[in-house]
Amino acid sequence: MFYREAGQYKSTYSADMAVFPLKQDRIGIAVILLLAFVGVPLIGNDFFTTTVMIPFLVFSLAAIGLNILTGYTGLISLGTAAFMGVGAYACYKMTTLFPGVNIIVLILLSGLFSAAIGVLFGLPSLRIKGFYLAVATLAAQFFLQWAFVRVPWLFNYNASGAIEVPLRTVFGVPVTGATATPETRYFVCLCLVVVLTWFASNIVHGRLGRSWMAVRDMDIAAELMGIKLLNAKLTAFAVSSFFCGVAGAMMIFLWYGGGEAADVFNIRLSFNILFMVIIGGLGSLIGSFFGAAFIASLPTILKFGLPAIGIPLAGATAEHVTFMLVGALIIVFLIVEPHGLARLWQIGKQKLRTWPFPY
Amino acid sequence: MNTKTMMMGAALGALMTAGAAVAPAQAQDSIYFANNAYRTGPFSGSGIPIGDGMRDYIAMINARDGGVNGVKIIYEECETGYDTKKSIECYEQAKSKNTVLYSPWSTGATLAAIPRAHIDKIPILSMAYGLSASADGTNFPWVFIPPLTYWDGASGMVRHMANELGGMDKLKGKKLGLIHLDAPFGKEPIPVLENLAKKYGFEVKLYPVAAADMQNQGSLWLSIRRDRPDFLYNQGWGAMNPTAVKEAIKNNFPISKLVGVWWAGGDDDARAGGPEAKGYKSLNFNAAGTNFPVIQDIIKHVVDKGNSLSPKDKVGENLYNRGVYNSMLVVEAIRTAQKLTGKKVITGEDMRRGLESLNVDEARLKEIGMEGFATPTKISCTDHSGHSKMYVAEWDGTKWTKKSDWIEPLKDEVRPLIEAAAKDYAEKNTGWPKRSEACEKSS
Amino acid sequence: MTDIAARPAPRLFANPWIKAALITAAIVLAAIVGARLDGSGTLYKIVIDPFQQMVSAPDLLAQTIWEGLVSGVLYALIALGFVLIFKASGVFNFAQGIMVVFSALTLVGLYEMGVPAFLAVILTLGVMFLLAVTIERVVLRPLVNQPDIILFMATFGITYFLIGFGESVFGGNPKRMITEQLYLPSGSIDLKILGGLVSLQKIDIAAAIIASIMIAALGLFFQYTRIGRALRAVADSHKAALSVGISLNQIWVIVWFTAGIVALITGIMWGARSDVSFALEIVALKALPVLILGGFTSIPGAIIGGLIIGIGEKMGEFYWGPLIGGGIESWLAYFIALGFLLFRPQGLFGDKIIERI
């Protein structure tokens, strides 16, 4: 009843191709943005902001990155964490080499390094497919992680191999470093994620995105139609790694605040991000957000939320129960809706359209 | 999409809100102390006895004395699984609950928490782990690393080598191998060892073990066989240690020349090697066994009442006792803070003062039933470690025994390095706050 | 319907093996020439020195190869579990690693509760059977006909669940494998050959023998029994198998149970080498390069892949690792596999990928 497209006429092609063609969608996105920019800082405390919201944003961005590769182009990658690591280390090196440059610019630039490495490790994708490619990208994962530990230049010859996040300000407000407040860090993350999501949305709805999808659906057919596989696959790797790289830099600079970085970008993180993409919905940007919320935030919320609502679970038992619950929920969700949470979202919208008279 | 999923969504929503509302839960007449633990994950083998020891000592203080000067300690464990992400969550939770002390229990977690703690004014107690440079109180007013740092440990290892060989001058031309976890924790001793190697003319060979290959050390031990080091120092943790002991036996490496850092001295680590592990050594700063009044009290007040998570036969194991030692430092620091401030319920800032004036001397050790359990430790305003003594423990096939005298670390070698590293840290973290906390008059 | 894979290729490079050999030869030649000309000796260290070491200390070479063989067999065992399940149900079973840990933990846990060792083995097999039935009922049956990646994801759910379940039942502390109670030998045979000492662990020898017996038994089982035939039919085509009256559900239970048995044996062997703990799960990742090298669908592929990876990574780490700081074992296996994969994208023995439009 409230969610209908009836009466909304498009008079130009550009209006028809808009990302949010429906008025209700535009209102909805405005509400979400308002909530994110105003609501969360108002109601959430530091604990909520740092342990739930910032990780959620970082993982969402990484999941969008991987979704471009896996969901839109059909190339499975298990090297996501390593590409994130490249972003983090590139950002770290740049902060020491160019201390005067705005940190947000550096975070965005570090994505480019990640993109370059991504293209390099994407080369085998021209020949290897499916799970074989997935395992092949593990080479990137393990090699890069090894490099993060073994190449002392990357961490400025720090004795313990840790990264230090220096204080950097934007317009006089500390953004990174110990004095940056959780709210500031959250705002920076949010702005980056919103801008990059908008960017991603435009890419995947444009010419490049369509060629990726053609490759995903059947690469030989796409090749016959005149899409250059080399270009399509490598751009997918580049764009995907760019997003992952920015997410990695955000992770260390805006969330962790330094420390043992090499171990953070481990194989488990790669798997987790792949699972965010699958659970959220392959080939759906909004799904990436759902997936990140499910895989990254759910364990945290279960762990700290269950005791808070009066279920007394502590220490190891809580951890075990969380593990079992998350495992069971993954299976349940897959059975209920194998196309991911994004599909549930669509079904929900469909229901809204016909509500309250479904027949 | 049916009712079931709807309901599930609603339940998740409720949880979300609940998660957002983790409220500070501090009663008026108690002290809240959050401790990280890892009873799950690949390192749980070392994490469980430590967690049990820490928990039981606090429980004993609460049960026997009714807390510290009548104030009960609320001890809460936060499970990290030795994962840095989870430890950051635990830090935030501890902070929101106004903990008097953060006990990170992993070097990665310590590194991540150090910058935050200086802003949030929460003292960190990383007992003989974490960042060695943080022993410099001038640059790290909020971080404490008693009784020893890894750098002290490395120098202790060199002294042990010298003792075995018969003098520091005999070190020349010898070869020391360092098996280490390829992570900040494992890499900590490298600078000191290399420095000492230059000075005394021995050679250091590094054998890194990637976290993924902890239980797969075959080729590493082949390299050891090729290089034939005279001594091996094992900076290992978790499942890496029992594997190292087994591989040493397998490769006919003389087991008595294999010395672990104090964290490689778990009973399970040595037991894995079977009878042939007899002679395996480990640095140590606390005694193993139940033959101390304090352990007896724990057995009486906690274990026998069924309030311990630990099986009775594991009480008194090396890592369990280390947990007890850590909790003792916490309790003593609380006591010192109470004395300094005159308050009963102290805050994190009081706790920092307490830790900075911590002085557990021989008489005090005797009073709390720890005579012979450890050596005195004294922390001062500039020295946040104390650089106390260690000894070499030997596995006799069933338990750890004290093999050597108390060894003092080469403080003259280590201290300048620590100060240089601390300065370097403060410089690299641009905007690192200058110490504004005043030193206590007594120290 | 054009078969793209059958495009004609240039004649000399028609055979990928010839191509590989030619390229390798060129690289080796260039390297040796380079080593002669290189002043700093870096290339000498890479190209010539390791081989000199091999010749000058043949006992260490023999020991390295033996170590490689043994770990290769163990990798192959884990890979075998993957292959069995992938062949029969097309599921890339990420949970194989945790099944190894879970079965070993069950065995040791039962023994600690006072069950005699061999009864514990039987009970563990019972548990693995129950697990297979449950997975088939709860996970596979509702997800039938879903894309591969969804099933892959579901096995991750199983992994999470088993980690939580296993730890809450048996506790997280590492346990000792009950090798003596199972009459597995310990100690070593020291051979004084090649001017040095080559020590062979009895448990490793036992592992190799048991693995060979098991692989042979599995081979016979697949080749000569009714169930084995049905399994192969299912592997060829689900639909065709269904139409001749083979019960897919039953077959799935059987393969998952077989994978469970393989997991138990793997768990015993790895557990005997170090300890039974959840850290073992990470070792299972080592089976992945073995899998892509051998091909997802081939049992001989898993074995030969395991041996190549095992020997390759040990030799690489031992002779070339120190040049770049060591610890290269963690990624070397993947690069070896990747190298093979560039010439055969479906692995050494995998089913040829034929793409049609």
What can you tell me about this protein's structure?
The complex is a heterotrimer of chains A (359), B (443) and C (357). Chain A has 359 residues and is mostly helical. Helix content of chain A is 72%, strand content 2%. Chain A has a two-stranded antiparallel ribbon. In chain A, a hairpin with a 2-residue loop joins β1 and β2 (173-176). With 443 residues, chain B is an alpha/beta fold. Chain B has 15 helices and 14 strands. Chain B has a 7-stranded mixed β-sheet with strand order 7-6-8-9-10-13-14, with helices on both faces. Chain C has a two-stranded antiparallel ribbon with strand order 1-2. Chain C is globular and about 65 Å long. Chain C has a domain at 72-290.
Structural class of the secondary structure composition of chain A? mainly alpha
- List segments of chain C where confidence is low: pLDDT < 50 over at least 5 consecutive residues: 1-10
Mean pLDDT of chain C: 82
Instruction: Describe the largest sheet of chain C.
Output: 2 strands, antiparallel
Question: How far apart, in Å, are the first and last alpha carbons of chain C?
Answer: 6 Å
Which percent range fits the helix content of chain C? 55-70%
Shape of chain C: globular
Give the largest chain-chain interface (CB within 8 Å).
A-B, 66 and 61 residues
Largest sheet of chain A: 2 strands, antiparallel
- What spatial order of strands do you see in the largest sheet of chain C? 1-2
Number of strands of chain A: 2
The largest sheet of chain A has its strands arranged as 1-2
List the helices and strands and how they pair.
The complex is a heterotrimer of chains A (359), B (443) and C (357).
Chain A: H1 13-16, H2 23-43, H3 46-72, H4 80-97, H5 103-122, H6 130-150, E1 168-170, E2 173-176, H7 182-205, H8 207-217, H9 219-224, H10 229-256, H11 261-264, H12 267-280, H13 285-308, H14 315-336, H15 341-354
Antiparallel strand pairs in A: 1-2
Helix pairs in contact in A: 3-7, 3-10, 3-12, 3-13, 4-5, 4-6, 4-10, 5-10, 7-8, 7-10, 8-10, 12-13, 13-14
Chain B: H1 3-20, E1 30-37, H2 44-65, E2 72-79, H3 84-96, E3 102-103, H4 107-120, E4 124-125, E5 143-144, H5 150-165, E6 175-181, H6 184-187, H7 190-200, E7 203-209, H8 218-227, E8 231-235, H9 240-250, E9 258-260, H10 267-271, E10 281-284, H11 293-303, H12 318-341, H13 348-356, E11 359-360, H14 362-367, E12 377-378, E13 391-395, E14 400-402, H15 411-428
Helix pairs in contact in B: 2-11, 2-12, 3-4, 5-7, 12-13
Chain C: H1 16-37, H2 42-47, H3 49-56, H4 58-89, H5 96-112, H6 117-140, H7 148-170, E1 188-193, E2 196-201, H8 202-224, H9 226-236, H10 238-243, H11 248-273, H12 280-283, H13 287-294, H14 299-320, H15 329-343
Antiparallel strand pairs in C: 1-2
Helix pairs in contact in C: 4-8, 4-11, 4-13, 4-14, 5-6, 5-7, 5-11, 6-11, 8-9, 8-11, 13-14, 13-15, 14-15
